[in-house]
Amino acid sequence: MKRSYFFSGVLLLALSMILYSGCGGPPRPAHKADYDVIVIGGGLGGLSAGVHCATKGLKVLLLEQHYKVGGCATSFQRGDFTFEVSLHAMAGGGPGKKDRGLYQLLKAAGVDKKVELYELSHLYRSVFPGVDVTVPSNWDGFKQTLAARWPEEKEGLEEFHRLCGGMMDDLMSLKDLFRYGKARTIATKAMVPLRQRTFYKWNKKTVKDVLDHCFKNEDIKAVVSQLWAYYGPPVDHQSAIIFMAATESYLGDGTWHVKGTTQALSDAYAARIRELGGTVKTSTLVTKIIMEKGMAVGVETESGEKYSGRYIIANTDPYQLIHTLIGEKNLPGKYIDGIKKLRPANSLFGVYLGLSIDLKKRGYKDTELFYSADRDSRKVYERMMKGEYKKGSVVIAIYSNYGDPVYAPKGKSVVKLDAYADNALWPKDDDAYYKLKDKKVDELIALAAKVIPELKDPKNIAVKVGYTPRTLRRYTMNRDGVVYGFYMSPDQWQKIPNNTPIPNVFIASNWSQAWHGMGSAQVNGWRAARLVLDREGVK
After folding, report:
1. Are 126 and 236 in a shared domain?
2. Using CA atoms, how far apart are residues 418 and 328, in angstroms rounded to an integer?
3. Are residues 337 and 439 in the same domain?
4. DSSP secondary structure string, 144-191?
5. Which of 494, 46, 488, 527 is nearest to 280 (CA)?
6. What pTM did the predictor assign?
7. How far does CA 285 lie from the centroid of its chain?
8. Number of domains composing the chain
9. Contact of 207 with 238, CB cutoff 8 Å
10. Which residue in 52, 114, 485, 517 could disulfide with 268, CB within 3.0 to 4.6 Å?
11. What is the per-residue pLDDT across 63-76, written as a single tens digit (0 to 9) for each?
């Protein structure tokens, strides 16, 4: 068969399917309830879901187990210092150059008017043996800086830029695919080889594959791929899709943070829900989704309170949803088995430091600094997962350099150190756990001191707070303290859908298809809300 006839046939099939298909799905729930939507969990995914439902007139109840909303998007204080819990930088979180992605959602929800976002001038500083490079947070500066160091890689940098931009364009053109009915989904996927060519070519590839395609020098490969540490797997295991799209977002739309820490963003979401007539309750742990005849009809809390709802959006991990909230007997075995087959990502370990010295005055102008004992991401990943932090990698955020005075008084500094961790390495016995925690905190500080020697002197450290997978499990309730959801390898990049086998139960967490991170959490919330609104026939 001639290629032109084949493509014409595919096109006709696709068009015919689109004509006879829409968003589809089961009918809207018919039962009466106190709330249209009950959101379980007040992290950014849940907050985003609640806001986007409330803006369309649905009555929302959001229940959060902690005493404040935000999940990982919060802050805390110790003495003179304010610590950002987790956000280093947010991609596409401000008035982006192409006005796409996250900032569109903030505007649609009316949250953009309640927070102030500011742009960071540099994306990161990458340091490993023989290399120390700082790259700006825009494509022109990024390419110019790296081409000056590696002039022979100039064409490769242009190709890398082209591929990242193409991947983002393709993903944006497919952003509503999750809403389509079965026929339209089949038709859209049939056209991907013609319409979304970058996505089609690279969706089964790793970051290493992209690097090898664009570059020859191993050092520039390591610098360009430095953000692998944001997404989980080392470059030879990490899906090319999330890395390419995120790089385009950071360099194309800007690198942003929230004035007053991400707690200000979380509080803005909660305030907006209340402003739209919704209810937000903290210190309220949901322990059960109440089921009747295969449908969710409400939730029950730890204190025995019951709330009825027409839809449930769970900002939880799927394990909690299956085994605790819904119950295995209420879900098909195929769904449960499918999730069992997926590999969870790693957890994190780190240290919050309040320093009695001003790092900026001592010459440290960095905001985000990656230090690795080895250029090879596979080696340092495996060392971190074994708890060998002396020879691993550390992400260093110097928040007092961000330009927001909230973090530290004049003459002092706030620094956060992050590394990967395996929950299985941390003892259940409290005495053994705290002994190991203290030891590993000192090891991680010693590693960071390779690039910031002032950290060697205990007199410079006024506040030192370590966290482990146990800490993350306590505050987020994610299995094993995992914050990234499923391991982002090429065979798992799709994670799980935002809908579930229960027709009126949806997932808004980082375990679902919009991937993970602060920005993606908010996108996952919007996706869950959008599925509810489609069911309601609301545009």
Report:
1. yes
2. 36
3. no
4. HHHHHH-GGGHHHHHHHHHHHHHHHHHHHHTTTGGGS-HHHHHHHHHT
5. 46
6. 0.93
7. 23
8. 2
9. yes
10. 114
11. 999 999 999 999 99
